[in-house]
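Quick one:
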Amino acid sequence: MTTLTDIKNIEDIKLMVDTFYSKVQKDEFIGPIFNEKIANRWPEHLEKMYRFWQTILLEVHSYSGSPFPPHKQLPIAKEHFDRWMEIFTETVDLLFIGVVADEAKLRARNMAEMFNYKIDYFRNAEKNNSKH
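Output:
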């Protein structure tokens, strides 16, 4: 039995991201959405995710950009975010324990809630605009 440790470096980030997205790709509910959108660009997506989480959790500023826009037009709803969060939490809990691991789950939850809210907001705005 391996004793779990906290997320400490880029290798830990890569392990978390790779494990998480390998589960996502195989997931019957959200896998098809990711696989269709990302297609054969998984290596680039994973690289971007390494930089994103490294910036958020380790304060190594290697990510720049805005994470929301690529998600705005996806055919997703709250239940997709719930499943994403379930897989993310399972992954982090399987691999790590500690303050940074808890921070990863908190940041993921906040991001999922914000993305879901913003997607709903944009959809409602588009519906209202099309009525006029």
